[in-house]
Every structure is written in structure tokens, then in C-alpha cells.
């Protein structure tokens, strides 16, 4: 089985840092995709679903909360796992995201071990 990943963050630098951290964690991804905001991610997902989405919350055009709701409406993304990656750490916000369909939450700053812990259960 394959593991495909999409990193959704409005910062290209942060997308690179996340990808490097995942490599350092020892997790193997067969394919990776990037998107600069939720709208761009949704366009890519509609034609090419992924196994795991790592998503920031605060982004222009469509934020992470809106993206979670929209992805959960896509029939081709029923099995897609969504892990939020953000500096936002209020329990209320995390609870709201989890209730809205997110599968996990990683706070910045993060470590390779955090990615290992959160993503391993979802790897094929």
C-alpha cells in the first residue's frame, strides 16, 4: 500500500520545514503534495485524494477549519486523515476542529517524534 501526503500551509518555508521534519522522523511517504491554502488544497484533492493531510489553521482564502469541513464533504476523501499543525493551542479550538472532522493536532514548534506519534497510526 502507498502513503500519500499533502501539506497545506500558506508559508512555503513552513511546508519545507514540515517535510524535512517528517523525513527526520523516519516516516516514509510515497508521494507528497503541497498547497498554499485550503482553496488550492481542495482543488487538488477533488481530482487526486491523499491518505494524510497536514494542515495549518490560519491561511488566506480558505482557512484550516473550513478546509476540514469541505474535505469531509468530498466522497473521494472519506478515508483521508487530517492532522492540524498550528501555533494555536487553545483546547476549545482543538476540540472544535476534532468535532469538525480533524483526526489529530500537532502544535508548533514540533519535533520529528511528534510527527512519528501522530502519523504512525494512520500509515498503511
Spatial strand arrangement across the major sheet = 2-1-3-4-5
CATH topology: Rossmann fold
Helical stretch tally: 5
Biggest sheet overview? 5 strands, parallel
| Helical content band | 40-55%
For the record, what is the CATH homologous superfamily label?
Response regulator
- Mean of all residue-level pLDDT scores: 94
Order of helices and strands: EHEHEHEHEH
CATH class: Alpha Beta
Spatial gap, N to C terminus: 6 Å
- Beta fraction: 15-25%
Number of DSSP E strands = 5
Structural category: alpha/beta
Tell me the CATH architecture.
3-Layer(aba) Sandwich
Radius of gyration in whole Å, from Cα?
Answer: 13 Å
Shape: globular
Tally of separate domains = 1
* Low-confidence blocks of residues: none
Amino acid at each position: 500500500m502507498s502513503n500519500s501526503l499533502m501539506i497545506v500551509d500558506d508559508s512555503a518555508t513552513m511546508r519545507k520545514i514540515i517535510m524535512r521534519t517528517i523525513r527526520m522522523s523516519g516516516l516514509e511517504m510515497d508521494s507528497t503534495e503541497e498547497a498554499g491554502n485550503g482553496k488550492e488544497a481542495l482543488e487538488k484533492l477533488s481530482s487526486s485524494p491523499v491518505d494524510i493531510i497536514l494542515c495549518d489553521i490560519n491561511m488566506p482564502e480558505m482557512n484550516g477549519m473550513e478546509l476540514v469541513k469541505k474535505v469531509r464533504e468530498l466522497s473521494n476523501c472519506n478515508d483521508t486523515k487530517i492532522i492540524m499543525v498550528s501555533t494555536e493551542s487553545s483546547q476549545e479550538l482543538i476540540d472544535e476542529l476534532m468535532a469538525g472532522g480533524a483526526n489529530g493536532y500537532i502544535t508548533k514548534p514540533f519535533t520529528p517524534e511528534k510527527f512519528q506519534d501522530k502519523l504512525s497510526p494512520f500509515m498503511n
